[in-house]
Design brief:
The protein has 263 residues and is α/β, with parallel strands linked by helices. It has helices spanning 14-28, 47-59, 70-81, 102-107, 112-118, 136-149, 152-159, 188-193, and strands at 4-7, 33-36, 64-66, 164-167, 170-173, 208-211, 220-221, 225-227, 241-244, 247-252, 255-258.
Length: 263
């Protein structure tokens, strides 16, 4: 059975994506099977470039499967609907807040600083959109600018992505699952957002779950799940995970390294 390669949260890190794809090709060849577990946008400097690469590969028939993440959904909901809030964000920060990184995504499509200056504000004002009603005109102008600048192909691509994928006894998802529910009854909000009641679950699951969403310093194997998010959003390398039957590895410049359950 050929190996499966997993790429965790990319978050606009185009150079890291290119490096990860190169490592995978060196290990598994140009037709390597790759599963991407979402969050292609936000925080990093080149969300547009990341999406261009993924769309080009998808159109070229590369052996890739891509899953939608919560940041990808926030991006599309802003451009299409003008939404800046998601109720799952307990801090009440908006997608435009620098900590969530929507600002860097928009800046990869057009000159955001110049846009804000032309509208009588600095980029810092974006953090307050949605909270300060006096910024409603800026909010509407920003959505209009995004609709003009973001290719329709990018929106169609992200909104058309599945939330889960099952292959070779693995269940791939962005955030995780509710362990109390069967896979067929999982809710979209849990699939792209869940942490509570999931990350601390040590019991058996219907199958091995492979996910991202919760950044660590390096991919981790928890025994019943594998977290592929090694924190590329925060400056770490984007480290591919290799699933080779019942063996799990990470992939680096020196090749494969076993990834074993903690403890």
């Amino acid at each position: 059975m050929p190996s499966l390669y997993v790429i965790g949260d990319i978050h606009g890190q185009k150079a890291q994506l290119d490096r990860a794809l190169g490592l995978i090709e060196a290990d598994g060849g140009p037709d390597a099977r790759i599963i991407f577990v979402g969050d292609y946008t936000d925080r990093g400097p080149d969300s547009r470039g990341v999406l261009d690469t993924l769309i080009e590969g998808h159109r070229a028939g590369r052996n890739w499967t891509l899953i939608r993440g919560n940041h990808d959904r926030m991006f599309t909901r802003f451009v299409i609907r003008g939404e800046v809030f998601d109720p799952k964000i307990k801090s009440m920060k908006t997608w435009l807040h620098f900590r969530l990184g929507g600002n860097t995504t928009l800046a990869s499509y057009f000159d955001l600083e110049q846009f804000c200056a032309d509208n009588g504000h600095t980029v810092d004002a974006l953090d307050a959109i949605g909270h300060d009603l006096t910024l409603d005109p800026l909010h509407k102008a920003l959505q209009a600018a995004a609709q003009d600048a973001v290719p329709r192909a990018h929106m169609d691509f992200l909104t058309g992505l599945p939330l889960t994928h099952t292959e070779d006894g693995f269940f791939f998802v962005h955030a995780g699952i509710n362990p109390k529910l069967p896979l067929r009854l999982q809710d979209e909000e849990d699939l792209i957002w869940i942490r509570d009641g999931w990350l601390d679950h040590r019991g058996p699951l219907p199958m091995m779950v492979v996910h991202g969403h919760t950044a660590r310093d390096f991919p981790e194997h928890a025994g019943n799940r594998i977290n592929a998010d090694g924190g590329a959003a925060y400056g770490n390398d984007l480290v591919p995970v290799v699933l080779d039957g019942d063996r799990v590895f990470t992939l680096g410049d020196q090749g494969r390294t076993p990834l074993t359950p903690a403890g």
